[in-house]
């Protein structure tokens, strides 16, 4: 099948191949925003449980805060991300990339503050410190490539890099070398801390059902 042209793949900042789940948690970008950064995150609600509707509910302000003890710490939180990649590689989009999603919070990267202004947020369903699924790397690489055809993407970083000391996702279980190899983008696009040798401990681990209670930071978003 011939590849779609960039113009045909997008409509008003929405990637047509993603399932659209519009979130109210967004605003306009600054008028002169140069969208050149992808910020990677991890999330699961409750932490370590995959496949449920809770992430979509959180991003759409529909989460029942009383449904799980962990959710109490998220009460009232208004957050979003442009994209979510499920464990099976399914791609969801919550905010137009032309708009400003609320994923990075207080942050700084490539010498610029407030990364929400000019970045695109990508959540990977997962748990800080644990590994991610092969289907997620495949979907992420395709998404990064689609974004780079539409926007002048020059940087990819984790939330842990743009908000060090405050955030730790996606964490050491994310295999940066694998993403770099899939994309074949210059090393300068990636955080220098991720340029060391591939960590063999990253491969093969999986949270399964043995996730400790309270793993992952409360209010892990923003
Ligand atoms: Zn994050």
TrEMBL record:
GO term, biological process aspect, one: peptidoglycan turnover
UniProt-listed InterPro entries: Amidase/PGRP_sf (IPR036505), Amidase_domain (IPR002502), NAMLAA_amidase_2 (IPR051206)
A molecular-function term among this protein's GO annotations: metal ion binding
Broad EC category: hydrolase
Chain intervals for the UniProt region annotation (Disordered): 194-222
Domain named N-acetylmuramoyl-L-alanine amidase: residues: 23-171
CDD domains in the cross-refs: PGRP
Compartments, as annotated in UniProt: Cytoplasm
Cross-referenced Gene3D superfamilies: Peptidoglycan recognition protein-like
Keyword Transport: no
Pfam family, one: Amidase_2
Requisite cofactors: Zn(2+)
EC number: 3.5.1.28
Record keywords, A-Z: Cell wall biogenesis/degradation, Cytoplasm, Hydrolase, Metal-binding, Zinc
Claim: Cell wall biogenesis/degradation is one of the keywords in the record: yes
Principal subcellular localisation of the protein: cytoplasm
Cellular component GO terms, alphabetical: cytoplasm
Catalytic activity: Hydrolyzes the link between N-acetylmuramoyl residues and L-amino acid residues in certain cell-wall glycopeptides
Protein family membership: Belongs to the N-acetylmuramoyl-L-alanine amidase 2 family.
Protein name, entry field: 1,6-anhydro-N-acetylmuramyl-L-alanine amidase AmpD
């Amino acid at each position: 099948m011939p590849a779609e042209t960039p113009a045909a793949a997008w409509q008003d900042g929405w990637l047509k191949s993603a399932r659209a789940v519009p979130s109210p948690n967004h605003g306009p970008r600054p008028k002169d925003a140069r969208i050149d950064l992808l910020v990677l995150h991890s999330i699961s609600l409750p932490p370590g449980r995959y496949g449920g509707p809770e992430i979509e509910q959180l991003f759409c302000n529909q989460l029942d805060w009383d449904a799980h003890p962990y959710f109490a710490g998220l009460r009232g939180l208004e957050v979003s991300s442009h994209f979510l990649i499920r464990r099976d590689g399914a791609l969801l989009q919550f905010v137009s990339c032309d708009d400003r999603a609320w994923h990075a919070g207080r942050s700084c990267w490539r010498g610029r503050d407030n990364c929400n202004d000019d970045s695109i947020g990508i959540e990977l369903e997962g748990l800080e410190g644990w590994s991610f699924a092969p289907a997620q790397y495949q979907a992420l690489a395709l998404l990064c490539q689609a974004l780079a055809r539409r926007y002048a993407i020059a940087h990819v970083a984790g939330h842990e890099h743009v908000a060090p000391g405050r955030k730790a996702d996606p964490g050491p279980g994310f295999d940066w070398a694998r993403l770099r190899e899939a994309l074949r983008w210059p090393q300068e696009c990636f955080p220098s801390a991720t340029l060391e040798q591939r960590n063999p401990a990253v491969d093969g681990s999986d949270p399964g059902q043995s996730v400790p209670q309270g793993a992952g930071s409360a209010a892990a978003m923003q």
